[in-house]
From TrEMBL:
Gene3D superfamilies: PPM-type phosphatase domain (3.60.40.10). It comes from the Bacteria. InterPro entries: PP2C, PPM-type-like_dom_sf, PPM-type_phosphatase-like_dom. It comes from Deefgea tanakiae. PANTHER family: PROTEIN PHOSPHATASE (PTHR47992). Residues 10-256 form the PPM-type phosphatase domain. This is Stp1/IreP family PP2C-type Ser/Thr phosphatase. Pfam families: PP2C_2 (PF13672).
Amino acid sequence: MRSLATALEICGLTDVGKLRDHNEDAISFDTDIGLVILADGMGGYNAGEVASGIATQVMSEVMRAQLAAMPAHIKTAGSLWPVAHEMLLIAVDRSNSLIFQTAEQHPQCAGMGTTLVGALFYDNHLAVAHVGDSRAYRFRQQELTQLSRDHSFLQEQIDAGLLTVAEARYAPHKNLVTRAVGIAPMVQTELHEYAVEPDDIYLFCSDGLSDMLDDASIEAILSLQGNNLTLATQTLVEQANAMGGKDNISVVLVRIRRDFGVDDGIWKKVGGWFGASN
């Protein structure tokens, strides 16, 4: 199997913003296994910071453990299809359980939770699991596309035709999510699969970025600076702060440097289990 470390370039940054006194966002990424995790915590007494920290740490550990324990025939084949989906769901469930248990055992953490977006790159594909309003985007051929759909009260209003996307940017209660990790014993995770192409850039962010910068602004920054992920990441955070920085801001960018497909029959045999989106 081709090494992901040379196929992917990943750069991430998290910032407290202009108005908050501490950062409740957390990010984690590992180029070697193609894993990206971003969480935006919520809860009083800094419990949001605890929730997002647990989410990124547990999900990372569970994903690594599952990859290490993978059956030999799948390792030999090189493709994680279709078990990547199950691994992501298990990792989110484990994170949810530990956050919920911690909140029950520690009164200062009562009610804490976190949004979460997790991504696994493999075999020229990307599996994205998300809960809440942290987002995943794809920048391809100079065009930005939002891949995830917010689990939020605002998105429900848009879907019902009560608000336009433009009106929603100025609506109250923008941060009311309808799903979060750790607030209940069980969590409903949304998961989708996408085919990736060389030169794609994937953006994962908390709402501290997407609330401050609209899609056109993000697209313009990636168009100008997409060839330098470090600079693009810094510019996205700086511009979000320049527009008010009302929340913590977290950004992870992933560039597809080259093909990392696996030429093996297992893909053809089980490829029909899940349909890839374009």
